[in-house]
Specification:
This protein has a domain of 145 residues: Rossmann fold, CATH 3.40.50. 42% of the residues lie in helices and 17% in strands. With 241 residues, the chain is of the alpha/beta class. The chain has a 7-stranded mixed sheet with strand order 3-2-1-4-5-7-6. The C terminus is likely disordered. The protein is built from 8 helices and 7 strands, in the order H-H-E-E-E-E-H-E-H-H-H-H-E-E-H.
């Protein structure tokens, strides 16, 4: 606690650029500590099959799932930029909601999706939800999707008082998001990793949070049946590339 106070005192005296860099280093050290703790806890899942993975859960814990996030509420506090500590073909379903936009495109997100492909069993389902970039821009240019106005007022800070402010805040989410998707670029990304039967799906109340329904795109795909180590080798090759 004393060290933290000293560190905070030193950081506040730094120039703005160095202050931001120092805060990022401290954040990354916190993430690393949580990730190492998550790796230790993940050992209990060794040898298990047919599990359900909730990736990027935040505080929205799904009962009966392996909930993964750097949020302290997660079952496993793991940094999804690193390899997932699960055996090949461990999960029958992987679900993620408003998470994939947080990763750099194309390298980091491709590695993460390759890991998802690896740990998903052949024939397993990958279900996901991301903010819909096409709808956001259509709302800005044409006024379609009136629900956006209410959602923006509820979720965005008060200083967002023009349509462009709301667009830019949505695209960055206060610096949280790094990339936005629509049906086309998400579909191509999933297919490039190896998933098949990639398609959009309707909102599913058994999976999805109602609070995120406005402005979200819901997608689903599967890992095709494969023989031997073909699927794993493909995922590793894509992740390494």
């Amino acid at each position: 606690m004393v060290l933290r106070r000293i560190t905070s005192s030193v950081i506040t005296r730094l120039p703005i650029g160095l202050r931001e860099a120092a805060n990022q280093v401290i954040l990354e050290l916190t993430f690393r500590k949580r990730h190492l703790a998550g790796l230790r806890k993940a050992r209990k899942y060794r040898g298990q099959r047919g599990m359900a993975l909730h990736l990027g859960c935040g505080s929205a814990i799904k009962q009966g799932w392996v909930n993964v996030d750097l949020h302290p509420a997660a079952d496993l506090t793991l940094d999804a930029r690193e390899s997932l500590p699960f055996a090949d073909n461990s999960f029958r379903i992987i679900y993620s909601e408003h998470f994939y936009g947080c990763f750099g495109y194309p390298d980091v997100i491709t590695r993460l999706l390759s890991e998802c492909y690896r740990v998903l069993e052949p024939g397993g389902v990958h279900s996901l939800c991301v903010p819909d970039g096409r709808k956001l821009l259509r709302h800005y240019t044409t006024g379609e999707y009136a629900g956006y106005d209410e959602a923006h007022r509820a979720c965005h800070p008060e200083w967002c008082d023009t349509p462009m402010d709301h667009v830019l805040y949505s695209l960055r989410d206060g610096g949280h998001y790094q990339w936005y998707y629509d049906e086309e670029n998400m579909g191509r990304l999933l297919e490039r990793v190896g998933f098949v039967d990639v398609h959009t799906r309707p909102f599913d109340p058994s999976l999805d949070q109602a609070s995120r329904w406005v402005g979200s795109m819901y997608s689903e795909c599967i890992k095709p049946p494969a023989t031997g180590t073909e699927s794993t080798e493909r995922a590793i090759a894509i992740g390494a590339g």
